[in-house]
Design goal:
The complex is a heterodimer of chains A (about 270) and B (about 300). Helix content of chain A is about 70%, strand content about 0%. Chain A is an all-alpha fold and about 270 residues long. Helix content of chain B is about 35%, strand content about 30%. The chains are: A mainly alpha (about 270), B alpha/beta (about 300).
């Protein structure tokens, strides 16, 4: 290795005296997190879209004509918003949780801990990237299923509001899981014992009115139920619960989890020892 | 002038383990400072406290006058850390890694300096190479470059040459010396004590979380042992009067530890008086390694 000293550098040019752009740290971390999933889009976008299509194929074709949950809505059409929302949620969670846990495991988390990023910037960057991936995958599922199922979109703003708020909730939950988990199996436990059961029991594949009263009651305790139900309202104008109540519950979950996560980050829990 | 680093009564405990015990230290701007100690002495803990990766249990630390907790943004902007572990982000190329690192410090459009750092570390041809595809030595260079992207006035190198080949080690020191000449304060931890001896103007030695020696390298070398004398004698015996000086019995001779060079004359006189002929004699300076061992054994 040869050093080439013909170029000059020196402390006289030290940018300690320069003016760092406000928010540049946040935008850079968000950009990095976005690129992180975009660069492996076959795994992070195409694979979940394909999984959702397989669910559609299996459930829609096996139950077609036998089930009509909302009057005038074909089961295949009923299923699509649920599958899209399930993909949004799972991918928002996967993005923030796997990025943080992998960075901790490999040690490269120090690249974002050494710079002068505030814990709020750190939180916002990971959260927005998670929301971004959730929405990209959700849009992918929606567009891919349009080839197979004719859909209506009665209240697009409701659909968008629920998609954003719900991916936010799971994005924050992913940050908590990523901070907490030191090993792959700890993160898997979050995914397999919390996110997956809550998602599958949220009415993705059915209406809770078709459940026995006890399960209906339990479903009301599951915040993901309100996410799927409200998102579906955006498509068909029909839902099991009022979308206003649903949005209030989802937003409340988001703010409660966000405050908790910000407190964790501020305390340096498992990040700054 | 504001000191580059000020550490005041800093302690750090992990449960019952006291990793740092009321350490106080001031490093002036422009110094090339060595932080030495055996594994577990607290060197990396101290560095991590300065970098904000670890929070001190008590005490205060400042970088360029900025408290590392209360004014962490300014303190971190003033500090560049080359970590001990060979860490990298496998998703990105060398240029992306450096551009992101620069952006985290609030620097946009920093390509000119990034190009210059890559140029000096001979990374230019690898700019578009994915980090995964680099050799260990190349990854180490990228770590150095990442610590320099924001041109910090204080640079901390935590065992940067561990597992690094001779060529890179020499090139790295050449570059770091240049940075020091340009006015950057350098703090180095290393297990290669000859490196510390050659590079550092001042050295602190830590053991079990405490500073057990803090002085200029020259004073440390002078302060302790005077010199060693290696002798091959005929007949092969050491007079009893010199026995207290014996440091080591060698296969073909003796190694005597002298407090002062003046004692060499007394050794020769004693040998003559005992009619012992000196067949071979070598006077040796103690190196930092010997002093390090001596201090660690005493502490």
């Amino acid at each position: 290795m040869s050093l080439k000293p013909e170029k000059s550098s020196g402390p006289e040019g030290l940018p300690i005296t320069h003016h760092p752009s406000p928010m540049a740290g946040f935008f850079t971390l968000f950009h990095k997190e976005w690129l992180r999933f975009w660069k492996v889009s076959v795994q992070t976008i195409l694979a979940p879209v394909l999984t959702a299509l397989l669910f559609l194929l299996v459930f829609a074709y096996s139950l077609r004509g036998r089930v009509e949950i909302f009057p005038g809505v074909d089961y295949s059409a009923f299923l699509v918003p649920g599958l899209a929302m399930m993909s949004v949620l799972q991918n928002a969670f996967a993005n923030s949780s796997s990025s943080l846990m992998q960075s901790k495991m490999t040690g490269n988390i120090i690249f974002v801990l050494l710079p002068p990023l505030s814990y709020q910037e750190f939180f916002a960057a990971y959260l927005l990237a998670a929301v971004g991936r959730g929405l990209v995958v959700g849009a992918g599922v929606f567009l891919a299923t349009l080839w197979f199922v004719p859909l209506r979109l009665d209240h697009p703003l409701w659909a968008i509001a629920f998609a954003i708020a719900s991916s936010g909730v799971l994005g924050v939950l992913g940050i908590i899981a990523g901070i907490y988990s030191d090993k792959v199996d700890e993160l898997s436990a979050f995914q397999n014992f919390i996110v997956l059961p809550l998602t599958f029991l949220s009415g993705v594949f059915y209406s809770i009115h078709s459940l026995p009263p006890v399960w209906q009651l339990l479903s009301h305790l599951n915040p993901i139920f309100y996410m799927v139900d409200g998102f579906r309202y955006g498509f068909f104008g029909q839902s099991d619960f009022s979308p206003w109540v649903g949005l209030a519950i989802v937003s409340g979950s988001f703010f409660a989890l966000s405050f908790f996560t910000l407190w964790l980050l501020r305390s340096g829990y498992k990040l700054r020892h | 002038m504001v000191p580059a680093i000020q550490v005041e009564q800093v302690s750090k405990s992990y449960g019952a383990l006291r990793a740092l015990d009321e350490v106080s230290l001031t490093i002036d701007s422009g110094e090339f400072f060595g932080l030495l100690g055996p594994n577990g002495a607290g060197k990396t803990t101290l560095i991590n406290i300065l970098a904000g990766l670890v929070r001190a249990t008590s005490g205060a630390a400042r970088v360029m006058g900025h408290d590392v907790v209360a004014r962490y943004r300014e303190a971190r902007r003033a500090l560049g850390v080359v970590p001990q572990e060979l860490v990298f982000d496998p998703f990105f190329t060398v240029r992306e890694a450096l551009t992101f690192q620069s952006g985290y410090f609030g620097l946009r459009d920093n390509n000119e300096w990034i190009d210059e750092v890559m140029h000096h570390l001979d990374l230019t041809t690898r700019a578009q190479t994915n980090m995964r595809a680099l050799s260990g030595g190349m990854k180490r260079r990228v770590l150095v470059a990442q610590a320099l992207v924001h041109k910090p006035p204080v640079i901390v190198l935590d065992e940067p040459t561990a597992g690094v080949d001779v060529e890179l080690r020499q090139a790295l020191w050449q570059f770091v010396r240049r940075l020091n000449r340009d006015g950057h304060t350098i703090v180095l931890t290393t297990h290669y004590l000859e490196e510390a001896e050659a590079l550092c103007g001042r050295i602190a030695m830590l053991k079990q979380g405490r500073i057990v020696a803090l002085d200029t390298t020259q004073n440390l070398l002078r302060r302790h042992l005077g010199c060693y004398v290696e002798l091959r004698l005929s007949p092969d015996r050491l007079p009893e009067s010199l026995a207290p000086l014996l440091a080591q019995r060698r296969v073909d001779g003796y190694r005597l530890a002298l407090r002062d060079y003046v004692e060499v004359e007394r050794v020769i006189a004693e040998l003559r008086a005992n009619q012992i002929e000196i067949q071979e004699m070598e006077v040796m300076h103690p190196d930092l390694e010997e002093i390090f061992v001596q201090i660690m054994n005493k502490a």
